[in-house]
């Protein structure tokens, strides 16, 4: 039986077992209490109480568990351990550290009932107080700092709900997370270790309107469909359309301080790739390992579905903890469809009334509860922090009308629709610019105008209008052919082609093109706009379209993305475009 069951009492017995759903009788429990089920002490959570029958979802495989075995109640909800050590760690869906469990089992295959704390309770950290004796502190205040990783300083907080008081003792030194680092006059001892229920949001003063973008370095996102720091986005797409690579790019390049990556029910080989790649990736901002500011939660598709249902809550709670320290956090959930499928399976075993396509009637409410914990917050300690949530959605067959995609669309303000046809044409990122949208554009425009250029919104609108016109013209081209179009429309199609190839396409595996700063994103658009303006001037002077598109400088537009000295390259290219086209008339 697991170590954690030593402090609890035998409380009830199993009456029936149906997959991950277990019913017990004579169990004195409340909703969401954590219990230990069977002789092996499998972790579970109370999800329904009806009379003397308590229904439990078990976070581990239940084969071999039978009626008559004991159920023990902890009397506490599912919580996560919070403190230094969360970063550079890999957890399962209920925050068991996989590397610790592997060393405990001497195997990559884990026995049931094995458990370990979410953070190392014995490791000592060098604590540096930021308060002095006589200072008054209250709930949420920072009392000290430890260097958690080479990239992140961990701020030790007075726990939420604390009455606070006057500092009686605070000394620098090496402490483990359970030793008191600050003592208050009330007798309260503050440690580096906190616990927090995963289904309850951590307190804040106010959720504010976000006005700063989460710069991702991906041209189509920053340029056309930006997300705010504290915003929400969905990336729906069929198999093989690039959801995971897009999220990897965001995890690596987005200007967030902390990354929480939740692999929720994804294929084992994909999670293996993440677990192997992330420790080897260098953080482009600091040169340190990317894992030094990343926490991974790995819950693959062959793991028990109940743990899959809890993993997104584990991830968002860890994100809120770092938000309280004043950090900007980006949370990637890949994918919320698998999470919804876990809810559907458990709901069906509970014999609840099914909603659309068998999903539970509360699907929309659960999705809302998750995404609503994102935001740009004023914290209770006076600092500001944000959580940006980017959830991948895997609609069966790429059908965006299915319930998970539609319910997610009602909640998020950014929609990055991946397109299988674009992926087949090797156009990456395969985000369909005709179906995607961002509702953050107007509130983020002032930031781009202040930090990049006053003309940001105007030139973006020109690009959007050109791409919209191309979409309409393509319908005509398919019917009568390109040559039947007037020359000005033929030229519009050529300009739109450069927008697609030079601007919207981006090579995630090229050392330079993988990241495109906003100024470069704007620069590429100005070069294409220069070609557009000069080309239409030439057309107006009687130059045929084939001669306009045949100039030597035009194909060089497609090479701007891979240029390190892009500013000089763009200026020279603009001059060449103008001179070569003007020579034609």
List its salient traits.
26 strands; disordered N terminus; Elongation Factor Tu (Ef-tu), domain 3; OB fold (Dihydrolipoamide Acetyltransferase, E2P); 585 residues; 15 helices; single chain; globular; 6-stranded antiparallel beta barrel; 4 domains
Total of helices: 15
Task: State the major sheet.
Answer: 10 strands, mixed
CATH domain class name of the largest domain = Alpha Beta
**Tally of distinct domains:** 4
Mean pLDDT score, rounded?
91
CATH architecture assignment name of the largest domain: 3-Layer(aba) Sandwich
Strand content: 15-25%
Model regions low in confidence, pLDDT < 50 over at least 5 residues: 1-9
Describe this entry's structure for a reader.
By secondary structure, this protein is of the alpha+beta class. The protein folds into four domains: 3-77, Beta Barrel (Elongation Factor Tu (Ef-tu), domain 3), CATH 2.40.30; 122-192, OB fold (Dihydrolipoamide Acetyltransferase, E2P); 206-441, Rossmann fold; 456-582, Bovine Mitochondrial F1-atpase, Atp Synthase Beta Chain, Chain D, domain 3 (Bovine Mitochondrial F1-ATPase, ATP Synthase Beta Chain, Chain D, domain3, Orthogonal Bundle). Helices cover 32% and strands 23% of the residues. The chain is built from 15 helices and 26 strands. Strand 15 and strand 16 form a beta hairpin. The longest helix has 25 residues, at 456-480.
